[in-house]
Amino acid sequence: MAAVLDSVRALFAPKTETAFRIDRENPGDVLARERLLDAAMGPNRKKKSSESIRRDRIPAEGLALVARDEAGHVIATVRLWDIQAGVTPEGRAVPALLLGPLAVDSAHEGKGIGGALMRAAILEAKKREHGAILLVGDAPYYERFGFSAAKTATLMMPGPFERHRFLGLELKDDWLDGVAGIIVPTGRKLAVSATRKAA
């Protein structure tokens, strides 16, 4: 992981006065991440269809990343989640990843941090031999990373979504060919705390 992140920093880090490093998310980042997402996505972020897939799940192994400033503060975040991206015509379930949310602190927008974080996430997903990444987001932004609505034309989100914003990127050739159906979560579930069990 360290080698991949070092390569991304060297190749894609913006030439600005803002120094940052890409790192794995750790438990101490939770509060900062949630505040960043609330500020970037607004109060209705937990009502989105993507959130129903992420709810009570753990991100895919090694695929919860953050960007930190020189003081170590979280200034951007991205997570990827294990999903089933429909089935093949033969009925075989197709595993994939759902990316999101990606967010950058407003004080650091426009400095290439989000792009560097995206590239790090894609490289790490390839390294871990995942076949495809899906997301719901602005096509003009994500197309630069290879995402396309054509890859998700026969797939559906579990709830309201805008078709032109539902995008896919194949990490392995033809991974999504012929695949159809509704996206469902397959990732590990959060452990129920002792307090919640007692309630």
CATH class category name: Alpha Beta
Strand tally is 9
Rg, Å, rounded: 17 Å
Q: State the CATH topology.
A: Aminopeptidase
Q: What is the level-2 CATH architecture name?
A: 3-Layer(aba) Sandwich
Provide the β-strand percentage band.
25-35%
Largest sheet features: 9 strands, mixed
Number of helices in the DSSP assignment? 6
Residue windows where pLDDT falls under 50 for at least 5 positions: 7-16, 194-199
As a percent range, the share of helical residues equals 25-40%
Question: Roughly how many Å apart are the termini?
Answer: 39 Å
Secondary structure class reads alpha+beta
Number of domains: 1
- Gross morphology is globular
In CATH, the homologous superfamily goes by the name: Gcn5-related N-acetyltransferase (GNAT)
Sequence of secondary-structure elements: HEHHEEEEHEHEEEH
Mean pLDDT: 89
Characterise this structure:
The model is unreliable at 7-16 and 194-199 (pLDDT under 50). Strands 1, 2, 3, 4, 5, 6, 7, 8 and 9 form a nine-stranded mixed sheet that branches. The chain has one domain (2-198): Gcn5-related N-acetyltransferase (GNAT) (Aminopeptidase, 3-Layer(aba) Sandwich), CATH 3.40.630.30. With 199 residues, it is an alpha+beta fold. Helix 1 packs antiparallel against helix 4 (113-127). The chain is globular and about 50 Å long. It has helices at 2-12, 30-41, 49-54, 113-127, 139-142, 194-198; strands spanning 20-24, 64-69, 74-87, 93-99, 103-104, 132-136, 155-156, 166-170, 180-185. 27% of the residues lie in helices and 26% in strands. It is built from six helices and nine strands. The chain starts with a helix and ends with a helix.
